[in-house]
Amino acid sequence: MTIEELEQIAKTARQEREKYDFEVNVCMDLACASQGAGELKDALVKAAEASGKKVCVRRTGCMGPCSHGPLVRVDPEETLYHHVKQADAAAIVGHLGNQPVAPLQCDLHEHFDKQVRVVLENAGYIDPEKIEDYIARDGYKALLTVLMEMTPGGVVHRVTESGLRGRGGGGYPTGLKWSTVAKAKGDLKYVVCNGDEGDPGAFMDRSVMEGDPHRVIEGMAIAAYAVGASKGFIYVRAEYPVAVSRLTTALREARRHGLLGNNISNTPFNFDVEIRLGAGAFVCGEETALIASIEGKRGTPKPRPPYPASSGLWGKPTLINNVETYANIAPIVRNGGKWFFNMGSERSKGTKVFALTGKIANTGLVEVPMGIKLREIIEVIGGGVPEGHKFKAVQTGGPSGGCIPEEMLDIGVSYDALLKMGSIMGSGGMIVMDDTSCMVNVARFFIEFCMTESCGKCIPCRAGTAQMYTLLTRISTGTGTMDDLAMLEELCATVKETSLCGLGQTAPNPVLSTLKYFRNEYLEHILHKRCRAGVCTMEGIGTELANEVTA
Amino acid sequence: MPAFTPPPLPSEDKRWKIVNGTMRKNGFARHALIEALHTVQSSFGYLDDDSIRFVALSLRVPLSQAYGVATFYHYFTLKPPGKHTCTICAGTACYIKGADKLIAAAEKRLGIKQGQTTPDGEISLMTARCVGACSRAPVVLYDGQVRGEMTGEQMLRQLEGWASQ
């Protein structure tokens, strides 16, 4: 495949689209599909055929505001319809070329206006199973340009220049990671994509893999060229069957078009990708555990160093990046590092995709420039807390993150600011809680998660999380004492300082952040046996749980 | 050293051929252990001693390692599932929207705890660590079909529907 051939495919695809007067795009992402988007699409196809109009009905990936689903967007007018039912198909097709169907029209200008789409630029515009759709929107152009015109060092330089930081949560500078792997000695190197989105309440990576799989593959191929790797693995959760099937199709199509395989674009560059299924272990998001899992072993982490960059998969230098990190690569190569560098805040560049969920009006996927205020995300883009309830906290970073209270909402989102608030950026889950959530119970929920997900290798995490869970259970059932609270705080410090991997080191964060901002709720549970949200039933009072020895 | 010959298939059951196919595709390499166990589970519904033993022998992996992997990962189950499976998502967004109440209601209705199957083998009650449909929380999967914004009533109706079949 040469650049000319690629342009020819793009041209043919565009000409194909010009044959139609209208495009009806149906969001078929999990949230919309669970509400009958599949049947809706069939009905739209039928209605389009019956109407005699030149209409192309296309399935697409996630359009964003999932709570308004099933969503349909009509182009070229860009009319967005929400809560569309099968019975509405005829009306939508009938109104093509006239005024839109008013009752179905969805006005979310504020929701969209604040967003900047880089990673999600194709989401909602392409059929994820058609490589031509991706190519027509400049897909694989970056890869071929890199192969033809850039040296591996030049690619690393461009990524470094962009200021991109790892989107998996840690925020390690991507360019630095790439240059370390590029400098590592060895003929055989690997590129791994971490698609083990274990953080409950986050689904950005799923949406990218399902809605725009070629973007991930292109990013991996560019990374492989830059660091000198010839083999890649995408590690995907088994809980995401659609993502697995879309990626499988995408890999097959990319191979068929000569965009993967040997001598890509008649250059000496060889690269191919294999999919590896996760099997439900949160710890496998940690890079050394993920490597163990790809090798077919139990997903237990190893002490670092050696870092995977020097000794990773089967002892070879390995580059591991998150799905969203790879998804940013092609646009950076196409538009230049400076373009990306100019977006975002001082030390966090570009955009970030968040999965906005919980007690909020517009749940779904949003992509915002770094540095945007949390308040804007929640109140303007998210539409605020519904049903007359009061905002209490927003949880970011999943079980490794923390709860951020109302008074911190005017701080701009960046890796460093979130860390300072006692939370982390994480992979991008953002869960809004209102006054019906008890913060002690929330902390207990996360500690229970970390306790069951602890791999058991190191004692602070294995035993510490279990003890923290017992203490939190005592507090939330009304049998906790002030001594328990002191011990809880001491344990948090121990587990944080002495655990082997990121899971244990960050497991106390939900407890520490709720203790910092919602200490009153803990005290009410202990001293007044009262849960202001009415979640904890205090059923432990007077039972043997009260006498259980914890230490 | 003689070339390695994989063990014979445990029985005539055609599903073993599918499992064997996965392992052959990976050149009977040790790192294909998780892939092979996935194929066993998707073909047979669960992992049992025979299947773990067969996979371990075929891939020349110590039995202890194969059993370790099978029990380490939550996705693998060593118990046969019921005819129907009701999986309640227990991810954070679902928890905030009241998944714990759904779990309690289902446990009460079926008389079993999460992770168990009714004595008649009809319904398994499972929980999941987030299926990625958080924007429609709380989410329940009926035989793998995702249904969002579930209320207790809707869920019980579905369970009644299965029970009356």
Read across the widest sheet of chain B, the strand sequence of neighbours is 2-3-1-4-5
Number of strands of chain A: 13
How many alpha or pi helices of chain A? Answer: 23
Compute the number of structural domains of chain A: 4
SSE blueprint:
The complex is a heterodimer of chains A (551) and B (165).
Chain A: H1 3-18, E1 22-27, H2 30-33, H3 37-51, E2 55-60, E3 72-75, E4 79-81, H4 89-94, H5 109-113, H6 131-136, H7 141-149, H8 152-162, H9 174-183, E5 190-195, H10 204-211, H11 213-227, E6 231-236, H12 241-256, E7 272-277, H13 287-294, E8 318-322, H14 323-335, H15 337-341, E9 351-358, E10 364-369, H16 374-381, E11 391-396, E12 402-405, H17 415-420, E13 429-434, H18 439-453, H19 459-476, H20 482-498, H21 502-506, H22 509-517, H23 519-527
Parallel strand pairs in A: 1-2, 5-6, 5-8, 6-7, 9-13
Antiparallel strand pairs in A: 1-3, 3-4, 9-10, 11-12, 11-13
Helix pairs in contact in A: 7-11, 7-14, 8-9, 8-11, 10-11, 10-12, 11-14, 18-19, 19-20
Chain B: H1 15-25, H2 33-44, H3 49-59, H4 63-72, E1 84-89, H5 92-96, H6 99-110, E2 116-117, E3 123-128, E4 140-142, E5 145-147, H7 152-163
Parallel strand pairs in B: 1-3
Antiparallel strand pairs in B: 1-4, 2-3, 4-5
